[in-house]
Amino acid sequence: MANFIDRRLNSKNKSTVNRQRFLRRYKNQIKKSVTDAVNERSVTDINSGESIIIPKKDLSEPTFHQGDGGIKDRVHPGNDQFSTGDKIPRQPKKQGQGAGEGDASDNGEGEDDFTFSISKEEYLTLLFEDLELPNLEKNQLDKLIQYKTVRSGFCAEGVPANIDIVKSLQGSIARRIAMTSSKRKHLKALEEELLILSNDKYDNIQQKRRLIAEINDLKEKIAKVPFIDTFDLHFRNYAKQAVPTSKAVMFCLMDVSGSMDQATKEMAKRFYILLYLFLSRTYSNIDVVYIRHHTQAKEVDEEEFFYSQETGGTIASSALTLMNDIISERYDDNQWNIYGAQASDGDNWADDSPRCQSILEQHILPKSRYFSYIEITQRAHQTLWQHYKHVEDSHSNFAMQHIKSVADIYPVFRALFKKNTHNAA
Amino acid sequence: MKHNNEAIKNTKVTPLNDTPDWTFDLLKQYQHEIARVADFYRLDTYTNQIEVITAEQMMDAYASVGMPIGYNHWTFGKKFIQTEQNYKRGQMGLAYEIVINSSPCISYLMEENTLTMQALVMAHACYGHNSFFKGNYLFKSWTDASSIIDYLLFAKNYIAQCEEKYDISDVEATLDACHALMSHGVDRYKRPQKISLDEELKRQSERAEYLQSQVNALWRTVPKKAQLDNEAKYQFPSEPQENILYFIEKNAPLLQPWQREIVRIVRKISQYFYPQKQTQVMNEGWACFWHYTILNHLYDEGLVTDKFMLEFLHHHTNVVAQPEYNSKYYSGINPYALGFNMFIDIRRICEHPTEEDKEYFPDIAGSNWVDTLHFAMENFKDESFISQYLSPKLIRDFKLFHIHDDSDKDYVEIGAIHNKQGYQKVRQQLASQYNLSNIEVNIQVIDANIDGDRALTLRYTPHNGVALGKSKNEVLKHLHYLWQFDVKIIQATESGKDNVIASCPPQTKDE
């Protein structure tokens, strides 16, 4: 007796719960692995999962088992050279020694790492766990509106260039059929009558003449129906439609002077990743421009942005000026949604701070959707912060935040979204 | 290829279809024929429930260590991730089959197997393992095939309820602790009673209350009447307890009722798997013997084609291959190879005994092989099976040799080889290698000090002087979690004095 059951269509992920339990259990190790991974991956790489490495010893489940020493008796197959009583010197520490087999694998295991992959969602959740991501579905960023002309049916009037030939000729045919059909029917009847008469054995000359005259008259009338009439003409109609542009550019500005250490930069990197993530939910293509500065600003690639070390003083306005230049050169503010994010430890040349304020207020903020400034420092604020404070008071698309730890990053985004719900209301 | 002479009837038979792709109709045809042959050889089985699953589901089944319904725990997630990783990297193939000791007996067929493989798996699992589960004395006395699925379901639901009622972390910690002690949750020397699911459910709630009251009584702090001091000090437990989990379940002072139930669940599951640990060689050997014999029988009848047989033999040979000790593929004795060859050998001794066989096996030489095989399957476990049936011929075929490894000496010694002087010793050593009480550590609860600080003392009795493995301190932490008072392990030194080898919380050395 046997029953066959096809279980292939049953739910597949029976182990999903256990997998989640596993991730939960090893959250600390996994988070560490994720944190390490952040430093190695690009800001814009948010669509892939991450492979996680945990030392195997952290995962082992202990049981009582036999250890080293004592007397061990083992039987092995394939004797090819031994006789009873042979004494074989021990080989150096458990290498290929049959008797030491258990230990060899134990030692081997200890050094392996346990590697596995987590999905994009799991990765992001772990990465931003301390940040309590707001509900991205509900909060949509404002988008720059552009207009696009789209076809919207046909109309009777328009410029000759917009004449739709096919549609117009279709109208013409219809009109001609409609206007001549009764005449054609009559004509056909008359022609048949004429045929009957001509086959008749009598000469019905009178009748024939009348019929022919009538036929000619009808033909003439049919021919007079115009091939095309203004009535037939159809013009393509266009309407303007509002489309939010899906292009955005994100400027990452960072102070790379000597006072910025790697830990600070990595905190800034989180901030940039988060911003990029938020923007990517709204915009389909995003350019990222990296500008680093000390006393001079320079546009660089990501690698250099985060990992090259510079020394020297700080002139923040240089970066803002460069950003403004790049905007006017490459990113027309009518087509691009411009976002700026500046990270600094607050150090700036004192005389430069008012300049920063004025560049922001006069040039950058009018063109930008949003500009955020984060100051990562444990010390008291300096002039830059104070001048930016004025900017924040007078501009709604500017936010600033003092960050001491990763957890402080989130309020910047809260501010961003709060502003938006106001606009929507 | 061995021929089964009685079975051959040279009438014209149409062979079964041997396309690689299986269909349910073809599976049924093969199953029907295999069942017929199995019946011919008097294989008594539970009803088969054959489930076709995908590779991913097979990994799920793998991860839950063969329990069709498992409670949720991270360790199964870990196993799943490991299996998945290895499989994806191509480091391992999936098992062809998984079979569950239950009634009806559930076997899994993997979707991507060829028809030949499915037939092999059906003969192996549905008739080989299945009849072993039903016939072997260990399975009969330790497991109850008809209630295991229900019990696992009960366990899953109960643990899920606990997670809702209490904290997931607490449930997890309790399970972790129990898992660490899982192999010490079995009564090795007692036979368990069977109970049905209904009883189990009924008893469960009563037990929870009752147990707590008992524990409370045990730990009552009201002073007793002053007992005579010269009376022997009251020892609890009165005898050493080898079943640590059982001891915890019944006696741990501060466990919550639900925690006791979880301890019990883990203990029961451990007990369910206990016979499988002790019969690996026999169980796999029996299944291999029957898939080999049944399919050859079908071949002799002309029901399966040469093409089918070639593919089958290819898989079969891989399964029962035994690499030699100096091969890079060697990782101990392959239970499939040893078991299969032993059953084949027993059949040979019955059918074609040599003088040597008559000397070594006077009882079975020349007897009816089907009777003898069934008797062997029903009444032995690996250890006794090997010491009873390992023949000199097989020792020669495997070229078995014995290594005596004393860590005090700087050499290892060959104790015996495959010659006349060595047969007995090799057989005896190989048998003891499968004796669970030699493999698993002997550690027992000897004292719970109920009148004092409630400290729990366990004694480790080494086998052949082998020390307790390094993880003992970690395990002790888990035991401490359950007991919640000091726990320690002692071991007698050569002079006879007891030495504390591990304790939790850790004690200073000079104590």
Automatic annotation (TrEMBL), chain A:
Q: Supply the InterPro entries for this chain.
A: UPF0229
- Compositional bias of type Acidic residues: which residue ranges? 103-112
From the UniProt entry, list the residue stretches annotated as the region Disordered: 57-112
Q: Which family does it belong to?
A: Belongs to the UPF0229 family.
> What is the name of the protein in this document?
UPF0229 protein FCS21_13740
Q: Name the species this protein comes from.
A: Colwellia ponticola
From TrEMBL, chain B:
Q: State the source organism's domain of life.
A: Bacteria
> What name goes with this protein?
SpoVR family protein
Phylogenetic lineage: Bacteria, Pseudomonadati, Pseudomonadota, Gammaproteobacteria, Alteromonadales
The SpoVR-like C-terminal domain covers which part of the protein? 442-491
Origin organism of this chain?
Colwellia ponticola
According to the entry, every stretch annotated as the SpoVR protein-like N-terminal domain falls at: 21-438
Alphabetized Pfam families for the sequence: SpoVR (PF04293), SpoVR_C (PF24755)
